[in-house]
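re: ur question from yesterday

yeah so i grabbed the chain u mentioned. its 180 aa long if i counted rite. heres the sequnce exactly as i have it in my notes:
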Amino acid sequence: MSCVYYTAASLDGFLVDADDSLDWLTSRDIDDDGPFAIPPFAASVGALVMGAATYEWIAKNHPGEWMYEQPSWVMTHRPEIVDAGHPVRTFAGPVTELYPQLVEAAAGKTVWVMGGGDVAAQFVAAGLVDEMIVAYAPCSLGAGARLLPMRSEWRLLEPAVNVEFLVARWGRAGESIPVG
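ran it thru and got these structure tokens back, copy pasting raw so excuse formatting
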């Protein structure tokens, strides 16, 4: 079991632009069978957690049934944002209180810290994120929501190229994490 912050970012470290748009990301080409592709990663996931902005983006851009079969949580103080038809739980509190629920729900599989640099920063600050996988798109945004709005130290475990993306798998610095 591991906890992985898997996301995409611009070259200058933003998750969304100043207008909260992902157009810069969704217009790019990526191979679903290539290195660090989302489908194989998602298959290794047992539970996922995200922030309210990520949930709202998914709900707006992928209407209808919830797109993930894994138990899902949204960290928010606004539980009313979750569509009644989505099997998504909300949580408002310290990540250290939520984490045991995520681990139990993951049943030995990966816990995916999905999106939201602020949410990821809470997990990183609590020492809960084992790896970070970032797909860097070939653009800069100049402003927006940061990839990880805190100071932290990482070491490169594995780089790869997937069509337009430079993808890097990072491990916490000072930790012994198996490569491969």
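noticed a couple things. The first helix runs from residue 23 to 26. also Strands lie at 3-10, 14-16, 45-51, 72-75, 88-91, 110-115, 131-137, 145-146, 154-162, 165-172.
anyway ttyl
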